[in-house]
Amino acid sequence: MKNSNEQLKMAMDEIIGIEPLVREEDKTKFLMKVHKKQKTYLVPKLLSALLFIGLAG
Q1: Percentage of residues of the chain with pLDDT beyond 90
Q2: pLDDT at 57 over 80
Q3: Higher model confidence: residue 26 or residue 19?
Q4: Euclidean distance between CA atoms 52 and 57, whole angstroms
Q5: Which pTM does this prediction carry?
Q6: What are phi and psi of 30, to 5 degrees?
């Protein structure tokens, strides 16, 4: 059974390759984009909260 798993792994490595498909550069780029989006949604939420507090008070 173990031999068959090793053969399958070797076959997949030949097809896909042994290098990772996602590089560190890609991870960093993705995280920067996500972090930037979170900042842009903060301003409208903050302004809405201030407007609500202003109308309630």
Answers
A1: 11
A2: no
A3: 26
A4: 9
A5: 0.38
A6: -65, -45
Alpha helices in 1-57 (DSSP H): 2-16, 24-56
- For 23-29, the CB contacts below 8 A with 24+ separation are none
The rounded distance, in Å, linking the Cα atoms of 20 and 32 is 20
Of 52, 18, 51, 43, give the one whose Cα is nearest residue 9: 18
**Which one-letter amino acid corresponds to residue 23?**
R
What are the residue ranges spanned by the domains of the chain?
Answer: 22-57
Amino acid identity at 49: A
The token duo for 30 is 């993705």
State how far the alpha carbon of 56 is from the alpha carbons of 7, 42, 44, 47, 53, in Å.
69, 21, 18, 14, 5
Decide if pLDDT at 29 tops 70: yes
